[in-house]
């Protein structure tokens, strides 16, 4: 007998392969981007839910290995969000992060992942709209690029859904 | 210290193209200080190489170990267990380290993960400059502690050439003229009279010209 109407619609829905959605990690500095993201939430501003925020004490604390490890595990894109230049709580952590992300972008280009998947942005704690805009931009960039070549086939169909 | 620079990920990937299980070995001495082959650099190179291979569809099983010094058997022998499990080794030591590991493990291919550059010093953060050629017959006393053999592009031993401008070398405008430095240094230590004597052509026999050198000091032998 062919069952046309499932008695458990939610269950059958869960079994269907889902379309790929970009998975983005945002490393957010405690003193600016994290507060900006918080403010965006308080102001009920909407931004794509593809982003998973990682709270960091300063972008200067993000090691190159942290970024590479995320890409190796199949993340599609990454945003490193630090303070405005000249506004780092630790003076130059964001400037160092900029140099490191530039270097990793070169590596990602060289190995065929694509340097555009990694972006560093600078903003202040008050710049909630800018945070939302930057998130939208990276999501759109990564969506245009498609899934990371390092993503496993199972990740490609199930990614992006909480 | 010995200063080296990293090879590109593409080079590393090509070096180990025929292997599936590789050991990356870092060195905790000179190349750690010059940020080329220490634990962190080996870790970054490992991530990048693994990703490059995965994209090619040839996943790589990679282990990484960093030992204190790759140029001493005492430390190299600790690698034996890891080496036994790997098909090949990539050494992130200087050229001496690569060869020491190759000698210790004759049955394993050993590849150099770095380009060994020179004997030098850290000028400022992330900038290294060459100071010594290892010529085997040090003449620094004559030149106030500035080596013309290494730092003069023409290796002139009796005064500057006519090409230096504004205290800079004519071969590389970013490089200070070694002879300008020698003059300033001898003047500051009041030994300008050293420039009065003519230095004869350098004897290069103690240098590398007759092949790899060897030093034996009997008083320390056991």
Tell the overall outline of chain B.
elongated
Could you say what the CATH topology of the largest domain in chain B is called?
Rossmann fold
- Largest sheet, strands/sense/barrel of chain B: 4 strands, parallel
Mean model confidence by pLDDT of chain A: 89
In the CATH hierarchy, what is the architecture of the largest domain in chain B at level 2?
3-Layer(aba) Sandwich
Number of strands of chain B: 7
Helix content estimate of chain B:
25-40%
Straight-line N-to-C gap of chain B: 27 Å
The residue fraction in helices of chain A comes out at 40-55%
Q: First CA to last CA of chain A: what distance?
A: 34 Å
What does this structure look like?
- The complex is a heterodimer of chains A (162) and B (222).
- Chain A has helices at 9-15, 33-42, 64-72, 93-111, 128-145, 153-158; strands at 24-29, 51-56, 77-82, 118-122.
- Chain A is α/β, with parallel strands linked by helices and 162 residues long.
- Chain A has a 4-stranded parallel sheet, sandwiched between helices.
- In chain A, helix 2 crosses helix 5.
- Chain A starts with 8 loop residues before the first helix and ends with a helix.
- Chain B folds into 2 domains: 2-118, Rossmann fold (3-Layer(aba) Sandwich); 134-208, no CATH class.
- Chain B has 8 helices and 7 strands.
- The A-B interface holds A 63-65, 68-69, 71-72, 107, 110-113, 149-150 and B 8-10, 13, 40, 43-44, 47-48, 50-52, 54-55.
